[in-house]
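Consider the tokenized backbone below.
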């Protein structure tokens, strides 16, 4: 039995934003980061049979593509971006950004292109797991591209938890990723049977979910 549990948390920002957008639309709420981290530590401490005070998220990282400042300003996203970054800072989350690009397709529609974020996510998670010797790595993502990351983490004998929250009729979590992970926590199932946990995890918004300040987070 472990006497201390070190946890690394890695958040796919695009996936996390999708969860929050769905929660805004359905419940007029967003995820409370501090409560989510508290749940992770308490659940893993219980599984390992140790005191929660001996279970700690030693590092947390957030990866996302974002617009340059002029584009973000024009799209009314700056306030929400800074507000969300404040939440990350308050919870000691390190954020990693790459710039988004907009390209015009032949049909005249504009497409937002995000390059390299998933690769950066995987490389950083694997490198830190190698050097920090996490007991657990928690991945908040649904992307099939991270299946090989989970396999590599398992080769390091690092236990992995896939944390997802599917709020649509179509399952957004890759079956390959789900099958590869050591544990899969699907919050749409977990909170259905636990109203108190749902209340703890969600922050009720005061302003309308769709607002002129943007709807990115």
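A designed sequence for it:
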């Amino acid at each position: 039995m472990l006497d201390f549990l070190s946890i690394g948390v890695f958040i796919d920002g695009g996936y996390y934003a999708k969860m929050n957008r769905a929660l805004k639309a359905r419940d007029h709420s967003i995820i409370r980061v501090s409560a989510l981290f508290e749940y992770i530590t308490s659940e893993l401490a219980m599984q390992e049979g140790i005191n929660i005070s001996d279970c700690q998220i030693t590092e947390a990282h957030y990866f996302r593509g974002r617009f340059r400042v002029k584009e973000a300003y024009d799209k009314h996203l700056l306030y929400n971006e800074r507000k969300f970054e404040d939440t990350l800072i308050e919870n000691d989350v390190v954020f990693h950004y790459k710039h988004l690009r907009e390209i015009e397709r032949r049909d005249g529609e504009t497409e937002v292109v995000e390059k390299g974020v998933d690769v950066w996510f995987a490389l950083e998670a694997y490198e830190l797991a190698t050097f920090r010797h996490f007991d657990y790595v928690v991945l908040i993502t649904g992307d099939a591209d991270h299946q090989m990351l989970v396999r590599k983490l398992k080769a390091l004998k690092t236990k992995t938890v896939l944390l997802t929250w599917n709020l649509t009729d179509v399952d957004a979590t890759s079956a390959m990723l789900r099958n590869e992970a050591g544990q899969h926590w699907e919050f749409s199932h977990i909170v259905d049977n636990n109203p108190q946990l749902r209340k703890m995890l969600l922050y009720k918004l005061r302003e309308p979910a769709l607002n002129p300040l943007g709807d990115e987070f």
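The chain has nine helices and ten strands.
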